[in-house]
Design the sequence.
């Protein structure tokens, strides 16, 4: 089956991937386009970070809520995970090693990256999961190791899309799998990326 998420080329931001000192896969949320995450990157303001920003077909990576049974979001979910793999493959082919590759996602994008990491644990330079968590209604058990990979996970206790309990479960699971997790809970009433989260992302990708 053709993957609709790979039908268009990803947006790029920052320097060219070839020869870049560091790179990031940057994933937007439901109802958004890469433009939203380009604005986030402008606030992060790390000029030497080469970024790939894929675009979801129909502006959504999978159709239903992230706490629905995983099977209910197929085949789009597997296609979205395939897209993550393809983008990371492009970064690797350009010569940027995993230890200098970062994963940054907001909302549905953060959920997609959380799911990818839980399914495929390995050490990257770091991950910034901005209001998200792994998919499905059930709690997961540790499987594999992140070998100390730094992870920032930020969320609001009032977020209407991502329950605080799932963000906490995701932070706990990543810790149990060997990630060095910084978990921050905010009082934001809006679904957004706040300035403190921007500062955490900046520290993550420049450490």
Sequence:
């Amino acid at each position: 089956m053709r993957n609709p998420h790979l039908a268009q080329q990803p947006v790029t931001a920052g320097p060219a991937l070839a020869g870049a000192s560091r790179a990031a896969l940057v994933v937007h949320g439901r109802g958004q386009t890469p433009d939203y995450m380009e604005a986030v990157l402008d606030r992060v303001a790390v000029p030497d970070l080469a970024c790939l920003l894929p675009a979801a077909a129909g502006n959504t990576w999978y159709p239903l809520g992230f706490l629905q049974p995983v099977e209910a979001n197929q085949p789009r979910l597997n296609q979205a995970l395939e897209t993550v793999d393809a983008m990371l493959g492009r970064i690797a082919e350009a010569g940027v090693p995993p230890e200098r590759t970062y994963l940054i996602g907001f909302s549905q994008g953060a959920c997609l990256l959380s799911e990818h990491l839980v399914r495929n644990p390995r050490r990257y330079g770091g991950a910034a999961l901005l209001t998200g968590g792994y998919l499905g209604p059930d709690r997961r058990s540790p499987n594999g190791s992140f070998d100390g990979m730094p992870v920032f996970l930020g969320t609001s206790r009032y977020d209407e899309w991502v329950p605080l309990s799932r963000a906490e479960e995701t932070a706990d699971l990543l810790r149990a799998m060997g990630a060095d997790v910084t978990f921050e809970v905010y009082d934001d009433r809006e679904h957004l990326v706040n300035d403190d989260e921007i500062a955490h992302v900046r520290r993550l990708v420049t450490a």
Summary: The chain has a mean pLDDT of 97. The CA atoms of residues 20 and 69 lie 39 Å apart. The first strand starts at residue 11 and ends at 13.
